[in-house]
Amino acid sequence: MKITVVGVGHVGLVSAACFARWGHEVVGMDDDSRKIETLQKGGVPFFEPGLPELLDEVVSAGRLTFTTDIERALDGAEVVFVCVGTPPLPGGGPNLSYVEAVGRNVAKHARTSVVLVEKSTVPANTGARLTQVIAREQAGLDSPVSIDVASNPEFLREGAAVQDTLHPDRIVYGTGSERARDALREVYRTVVEEDGMPVVETDVPTAELIKHASNAFLATKISFINAVAQVCERVGADVDQVADGMGFDQRIGRQFLYAGLGYGGSCFPKDVDAFIHLSRQVGYEFTLLEEVERINCEQRNVVLDKLRNELWHLNEKTVTLLGAAFKPGTDDLREAPALHLARMLLEEGATVRIYDPVALANVKEELGDAVELFDDPIEACRGAHAAVVTTEWDEVKAIDPQALKDALAYPIVVDGRNALDGEALAAIGIHYQAIGKPAPRASA
Ligand SMILES: NC(=O)c1ccc[n+]([C@@H]2O[C@H](COP(=O)([O-])OP(=O)(O)OC[C@H]3O[C@@H](n4cnc5c(N)ncnc54)[C@H](O)[C@@H]3O)[C@@H](O)[C@H]2O)c1
């Protein structure tokens, strides 16, 4: 099929490359000319494991090209995927103006009938809005083409995006016409035949809602275990063992039951917020999700309190954050808990150092000279009064305990991801604290 992907960011670029891998002829369009230039020169604008190799393969096979020109991008397209951002608005809810802009552009410039598929995460009923916008834009045209709107939410995880897209747990699409349904069946035919994953075919608002409900549920799991961790700390229980014990129950599952600094990233915070906002708009107060958000924000204070307990005043103390990215495997800093923590520490007068294996350039863009940047975790800890594990990178988990102790001015480690071997650190005299766990015996 001839497929156009509008917005070649984390979702659009990976999707475009995977569509091309499945044999489709794909054009990636973006209005960021720097991004398109990078891609045309064979570069990749962000860090994502496996993506450079996949792009090499499909671009050199001539199945994926890039442009900033929407008319060229739409030439002959049968299916157009909308993969633009839906960032949060200051007053809550997502900014859907980029999605609307694509709808208007497609209405104006498509010369043949197309299926327009929302892959961006949008609130239920965005499809109806898009259909309305398209009809209005086409009102003045001589011979408007038919444009069917569909929803095909994306569930990929940054850091595992290529694998997740090539081998998804399930494919969900919502359509309002046979033509749109058949087009989406054809887009995914190869991978469904090869992998045999479940396909959920629904109407458009149901598919839209599946995405918000999924992310809200995963965020709820994280906040739930963080709340359990609070109780664990007060009764002397170990939250990781509690999660193990719960997780073997197949109705519960172990995934996302990890206590720590809380969730971040470009999706969970904004999607939970968007779901609360949508519910309110339609007359339902989703207070459960408000609490999920509150618990998530509170986790940064939990870590800060542990530092205050250890260091008394944070003013003029040097604190090293081990990890900046919101999770391992990405250089994405959107809503990264480490950045929130860095800002809170700076406000208290601390000197903040940050180690990250891939995200330092982005940290520099976010925080400028306010923090010191390191590409070596031990050097980042040299002379610091405490280290905090903020991202569970393999490089952080592999830190040699003795080298860490020798580097730190005070042997204090707060593990905001429960990622290190606390017993091993405590055994050599590091004062180690995790989230929701008793202090290891040697450091108690
Ligand atoms: N990042 C994830 O892990 C993930 C996972 C699932 C779903 N999503 C959803 O997918 C959507 C995209 O997320 P992302 O992380 O890829 O965002 P991104 O910011 O990485 O990419 C968005 C791209 O859209 C481009 N763009 C914006 N307006 C445009 C326009 N009018 N025409 C052409 N290009 C335009 C931007 O230049 C940018 O390159 C969001 O709705 C997000 O919630 C993201």
Please provide a written account of the structure.
The structure is a single chain. With 444 residues, this protein is of the alpha/beta class. It folds into two domains: 2-201, 3-Layer(aba) Sandwich (Rossmann fold), CATH 3.40.50; 230-443, NAD(P)-binding Rossmann-like Domain (Rossmann fold, 3-Layer(aba) Sandwich), CATH 3.40.50.720. The protein has 18 helices and 14 strands. It has helices spanning 10-21, 33-40, 51-60, 70-74, 97-109, 126-138, 161-166, 178-195, 204-235, 239-247, 268-281, 287-311, 337-347, 360-367, 377-381, 394-397, 401-407, 422-427; strands spanning 2-6, 25-29, 64-67, 79-82, 114-118, 147-151, 171-174, 199-202, 318-322, 351-355, 372-374, 386-389, 412-415, 431-433. Helix 8 links the parallel strand 7 (171-174) and strand 8 (199-202). The radius of gyration is 24 Å and the shape is elongated. Nicotinamide-adenine-dinucleotide is lined by residues 6-12, 29-32, 35, 83-86, 98, 101-102, 120-121, 154, 156, 158, 266-267.
Q: What would CATH call the class of the largest domain?
A: Alpha Beta
Structural class: alpha/beta
- The CATH superfamily of the largest domain bears the name NAD(P)-binding Rossmann-like Domain
Low-pLDDT segments: none
